[in-house]
Specification:
Blueprint: E1 2-6, H1 17-25, E2 28-32, H2 42-49, E3 54-56, H3 58-63, H4 65-69, E4 77-81, H5 89-100, E5 105-108, H6 113-116, E6 131-133, H7 144-154, E7 159-163, E8 165-166, H8 172-177, E9 186-187, H9 190-204, E10 215-220, E11 230-235, H10 236-241, E12 252-256, H11 263-269, H12 276-285
Parallel strand pairs: 1-4, 1-5, 2-3, 2-4, 6-7
Antiparallel strand pairs: 7-12, 8-9, 10-11, 10-12
């Protein structure tokens, strides 16, 4: 059996009992280590699970999946994923490869940012499509995300933005020369994300992401009751100008608040606002939310 097991978002204790049983029955256990990051050291997982973990980087998961799937038709093999297995398309791909090899598969789900985002007070059924925001370079500033955000905005829906991470990435020069030299890990911060959003808004000028009239909520290390969890709410401009340390450690996510905003959402998220008066004012005057 080939298991893909969600680990949740916090620490070793987020694993489900079903997931833990599958790990203990497995002869090989791989830890996927590039679509997200752990909040704890690998050694703590190994001690808790009672199993050594084989680190599976992008190359292994995407181009060397045969190594992971080897003999999985005859023995239990597990691939551990931070969050939920279906939080990244990579995992769908390896499942299809397993099925093509007639290897039985089982998915064991867990919490992901797609549901724990509700901790900020916004109601999950008011969210539209989720959008990824990648690091800009001097020569590459993709703006396709803007159209998807606009579609959500036009429907009054919230938008969850997943901020880019760069783990085991090669520079253009090293990639061109075929040198296996990797850049230090990088994680997009909230101020950088907002800066990129406003940069594209200044170019597109469609009024989707007005700095002073668009409410947003920054999230860090949510889920699992983590002591490191941070939630900060405000306008885009306030989030851009706020102290970077206030956002906590990566990974970071950002929610663009939609106009279909309920007064209970406003009231709940107000506890995290940089300026509570301004938060309520924009919610009332710009979003048309009745706060009586």
């Amino acid at each position: 059996m080939f298991y893909i097991i969600g680990l949740g978002l916090s620490d070793e204790k987020d694993i489900t009992l079903r997931g833990l049983e599958a790990i203990k029955s497995s002869s090989r256990v791989y830890l996927e280590a590039y679509t997200s990051i752990l909040m704890i050291q690998q050694e703590r997982l190994e001690e808790f699970y009672g199993k050594p973990l084989i680190l599976a980087d992008r190359d292994m998961v995407e181009t060397q999946s045969d190594e992971i799937l080897h003999n999985a038709a005859n023995e239990d093999i597990s691939l551990l994923v931070v969050g939920d297995p279906f939080g990244a398309t990579t995992h769908t791909d390896i499942i299809l490869r397993a099925r093509a090899l007639n290897i039985p598969t089982q998915i064991i789900h867990n919490a992901s940012i797609l549901n724990t985002v509700g901790c900020c007070g916004l109601q999950l059924y008011n969210f539209g499509q989720t959008v990824s925001l990648v690091f800009f370079t001097e020569t590459w500033k993709p703006d396709s995300f803007y159209d998807r955000v606009k579609q959500n905005v036009d429907l009054g829906l919230h938008t969850l933005l997943l901020l880019d991470i760069k783990v085991k990435e090669q520079s253009e020069e090293n990639l061109a020369r075929g040198r296996k030299i990797y850049e230090p890990p990088r994680y997009m911060s909230i101020p950088q994300a907002v800066s990129q959003l406003l940069e594209i808004e200044s170019t597109r000028q469609e009024g989707v992401l007005h700095p002073d009239d668009t409410l947003a909520i920054a999230l860090s290390r949510v889920g699992g009751g983590s002591e490191n969890q941070r939630i900060v709410a405000g306008t885009l401009q306030q989030l851009h100008d706020h102290h970077p340390e206030a956002y906590g450690q990566p990974l970071h996510s950002l929610v663009i608040v939609g106009k279909r905003l309920h007064h209970l959402e406003v009231g709940y998220a107000e506890a995290f606002a940089i300026d509570k008066v301004q938060w309520r004012k924009v919610a009332s005057e710009v979003y048309g939310c009745s706060l009586e």
